Amino acid sequence: MALSRVPGDDELFIGGIFTLRRKTTLAEAGITHVLSVVKFNFQSIADWDKYEHLGIEVDDVEDENLLGEFERTGAWIEKALREGKDGKKGKVLVHCAMGKSRSVTVAIAYLLRQYPHHTVSSALELIRESRPIAEPNDGFIAQLELYKKMGCPPDIENHPQYRRWIFQKEVDLAVAVGQGPSRVRFEDEEKQEENETSKREVELRCRKCRRTLAKTPYIVDHLPAPAKSSPSSTDGPISSLAPALPPTPIHSACFHHFLQPLSWMRPALREGLLQGRLECPNSKCRAQLGRYAWQGLKCSCGVWVCPAFSVQKSRADEVVKRKEGNNGPAIGTMNPDGRGGIRLPPGMKGRENL
Fold first, then answer.
1. CB within 8 A of 318, min separation 6: which ones?
2. pTM, full prediction
């Protein structure tokens, strides 16, 4: 299986490194452009100068970053197919070592970019119609899924989800050697993508001094899913670096709020330790609120959050705000037992909560 044409209107082919030595096969297919997704010295290939060439030097390993190349390769393939050579439309060969993982990944990324109706699964199945051995590694499949979720943007490197993904890779590498990452991506200092709207907004405040700690976009929804007969995505760790979901009702089994990394945590996180304490950012308060652990923490509800930036519910009040238009604005404070109430300023007589 030296050369396989991807079914469809595009003259797009997938092959392995040895395909380049089959001159008759390439000539019969009319190949004009070659996209190489492999580290290789092409000077030994005869008549190599006759092809337009783009090289992407990556290894076929799960932690290799191909995602950052998808716009570059997709735009190159699109232009090659449209403009071609000598006034004729081009025919593009995408190859790696075996024509199984890297080249297939790049071809799928092109299909996702050009044809929005495709999913990662449907694009892979289309390629397998002519190339049954197509099998990107799990890391590349995850990158393709993220690319699709991002909307296949032209500016990948500045997309919030891509930058968050890169930071997660840095965190994983640092944790593997037993230390905190050398830099921290604070979510409240980064551009945020739009999330689902919700009628319920939450604000966490230090119980001692009332200083605001976090609001809805930066609170990690980590509630376990209802019991199912089949495994769910909550079976593994939940990332605190993922976009926050609309807030859910209070979960009595959880003794902690988990947050995304926020700028008020900078004094603690810049020390580069694997784990430590989180204190109130109010210099006149400095109450201990919880702890952080780059390697993750297990909540009392049984869910792992990784990395974890945890604030104890007993140290913070949860102020629930209802958006305007939902029968008028409403503000209330939820106590650890789930009862609503208004917290009086320190020093006032009477009961603390009404």
1. 202, 203, 204, 250, 257, 333, 334
2. 0.79
Triad 302, 307, 312: Cα angle to 5°: 60
Contact 240, 260 (CB under 8 A): yes
The question of whether 96 is a catalytic residue gets the answer yes
Tell me which DSSP letter residue 41 carries: -
36-95: per-residue pLDDT in tens?
999 888 877 777 888 999 999 999 999 999 999 999 999 999 999 998 777 789 999 999
Segments in the chain forming alpha helices (H): 23-29, 70-83, 102-114, 120-128, 138-150, 160-176, 266-269
Give yes or no for a contact between 34 and 26, defined as CB atoms under 8 angstroms apart.
no
Query: At the topology level of CATH, where does 3-156 sit?
Result: Protein-Tyrosine Phosphatase; Chain A (3.90.190)
β-pair type (92-95, 33-36): parallel
Residue range(s) in the chain whose domain bears CATH number 3.90.190.10 = 3-156
Here the tokens at position 249 are: 């009702």
Q: Residue type for 132, please?
A: P
Q: Using an 8 Å Cβ cutoff, are 348 and 338 in contact?
A: no
